[in-house]
Amino acid sequence: xxxxxxxxxxxxxxxxxxxxxxxxxxxxxxxxxxxxxxxxxxxxxxxxxxxxxxxxxxxxxxxxxxxxxxxxxxxxxxxxxxxxxxxxxxxxxxxxxxxxxxxxxxxxxxxxxxxxxxxxxxxxxxxxxxxxxxxxxxxxxxxxxxxxxxxxxxxxxxxxxxxxxxxxxxxxxxxxxxxxxxxxxxxxxxxxxxxxxxxxxxxxxxxxxxxxxxxxxxxxxxxxxxxxxxxxxxxxxxxxxxxxxxxxxxxxxxxxxxxxxxxxxxxxxxxxxxxxxxxxxxxxxxxxxxxxxxxxxxxxxxxxxxxxxxxxxxxxxxxxxxxxxxxxxxxxxxxxxxxxxxxxxxxxxxxxxxxxxxxxxxxxxxxxxxxxxxxxxxxxxxxxxxxxxxxxxxxxxxxxxxxxxxxxxxxxxxxxxxxxxxxxxxxxxxxxxxxxxxxxxxxxxxxxxxxxxxxxxxxxxxxxxxxxxxxxxxxxxxxxxxxx
Length: 484
What we know:
- The chain has helices at residues 2-18, 24-30, 42-57, 61-69, 78-84, 96-117, 127-148, 170-188, 207-223, 232-240, 265-272, 280-288, 294-297, 343-356, 360-379, 383-390, 404-415, 420-430, 452-458, 469-472, 476-479; strands at residues 73-75, 251-253, 276-278, 338-341.
- The protein is mainly alpha-helical.
- The chain has a domain at 43-258 and 337-443: Serine Threonine Protein Phosphatase 5, Tetratricopeptide repeat.
- It has a two-stranded antiparallel ribbon. A two-stranded antiparallel sheet has the order 2-4.
- Mean pLDDT is 91; it is low at 1-33.
- Residues 1-21 form the signal peptide.
């Protein structure tokens, strides 16, 4: 009924306008939407980008599909159940929304902030805004290339000036990511004309904390190249030394609210769709490790009255979350934080880098520090609880016993529940956790399909990696094979 009333209102307005004698200037004014200005200041763009990146880039579809790929969760209904059984993943519309968010929403707004606030721009001297935008742009481009491989980067965000941008090889995109982070660090050190303050929903305009985030991301993206760059570990450690100093520096969005349009996207997914249950693999792994986080993160399933993970590729439809466990409210509630990168991840990156360089004692120290930080962040574990866990014989007790698998398994646990895309990147790069191949299903795809929207608009430039190739053609940083 409301729709028809609105339609009648529009028709009435049209009749009034059509019967009036208006000059061209008046018509121009009528055709202008005051709520959709063509030129927006950096102060108005900042809240939008610091909300959109954690929410629209990795907070929805990429996270939901990656979660079943790495067996944090199992799909128990509809699309995610099909994806868990490897059905429909070649569909070019699978992650159209993520591509659109990145290339039509996020990158244009970030580029506008950079252009306006830099030398010669309309708001020249807003260096803190510019530095923040470059950190977020680096993060967004890294997500894009980790998702698809070659993507538009150097020609992205040009709007009507270039509707068919070229696709840059992943090696080139990663070089741009590191350059952007270096530029961001330099910009954040400059005397800024203004500070975004509360307009920045992540660090409240704190340039020092954004700088630590930039260095920490540099460490992550250097370590991502461990298979293809012999200096990756050394470069990662150099960056990490200037990164997060504690969990207080975590790169986290923590501004969701308990309202229908402001809730955490995973909470909305649970209430609107409920496609996920906690994976049997996750439950069994924590049981094998006697990990005290299990009962605090995973709730008992109502029917058995105990924690019960869902087998990946299950045929059981459990949208009502009766037979299989879901996460606890400690993990997921309307205002849960959305981490983009954390201190515990950085320490585990350091552990891997030290291990790769043969510094086993330093690797072991960083490994235990990372676990300690993750347990505090995830479940607010006490020192006594953490000490008992670290002393367990289920975990390595010395640097000489520490393996890459130990480190990646703990990263995988730390990435639960909101960073499965990073766990997916680790699995593709290292092959861990190995349990992914133990179930009677084929391994996950090694990349996401290019979106149909871009194929339709820019087919000549979209790499010809289609169909089943998402299962067989890994992206560059896995094996060093260039794709374009």
